[in-house]
């Protein structure tokens, strides 16, 4: 979500829903692994990348990505059937300016 810069639209009733989720997931994974590298992390495994992202988030360096996600959501560029309660808390709340 945070690492899909153009947004996305998922329709669970679509026959291609599963393949669309896989394609978006691979794109998001690649972008999510590249982001910590830009900030000096050498993480490649999901666990170490998540740990690196947590550190980066504590430094406030994910705030722009979170704000952009909320902007895309408000503009309708993100259509996601995932209930908001299932999203991590840091994504549900807009960062303060």
Outline the fold blueprint.
Blueprint lengths: L7 E2 L7 H22 L7 H13 L4 H13 L2 E2 L9 H4 L5
Parallel strand pairs: 1-2
What do these coordinates show?
This protein is mostly helical and 97 residues long. The protein folds into 2 domains: 12-59; 62-97, no CATH class. Helix content is 54%, strand content 4%. It contains 4 helices and 2 strands; from the N terminus they run βαααβα. The chain has helices at 17-38, 46-58, 63-75, 89-92; strands spanning 8-9, 78-79. It has a two-stranded parallel ribbon. The radius of gyration is 14 Å and the shape is globular.
Primary descriptors:
mainly alpha; two-stranded parallel ribbon; about 100 residues; about 55% helix; globular; 2 domains; 4 helices
Using DSSP, what is the number of strands? 2
Spatial gap, N to C terminus: 20 Å
Number of domains: 2
Question: Roughly how many Å is the radius of gyration?
Answer: 14 Å
Report the order of strands and helices: EHHHEH
Global mean pLDDT: 86
Shape: globular
Percentage of β-strand residues: under 5%
Strand order of the largest sheet: 1-2
Unreliable stretches (pLDDT < 50, length at least 5) are none
Biggest sheet features? 2 strands, parallel
Portion of residues in helices?
Answer: 40-55%
Name the structural class: mainly alpha
Quick synopsis:
This protein has 4 helices and 2 strands; from the N terminus they run E-H-H-H-E-H. It is mainly alpha-helical and 97 residues long.
């Amino acid at each position: 979500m945070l690492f899909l810069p153009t947004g996305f639209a998922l329709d669970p009733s679509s026959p291609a829903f599963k393949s669309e989720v896989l394609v978006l997931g691979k794109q998001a994974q690649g972008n999510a692994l590249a982001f910590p590298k830009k900030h000096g992390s050498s993480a490649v495994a999901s666990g170490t990348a998540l740990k690196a992202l947590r550190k980066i988030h504590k430094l406030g360096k994910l705030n722009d990505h979170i704000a952009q996600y909320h902007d895309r959501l408000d503009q309708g560029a993100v259509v996601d059937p995932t209930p908001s309660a299932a999203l991590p808390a840091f994504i549900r709340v807009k960062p303060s300016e």
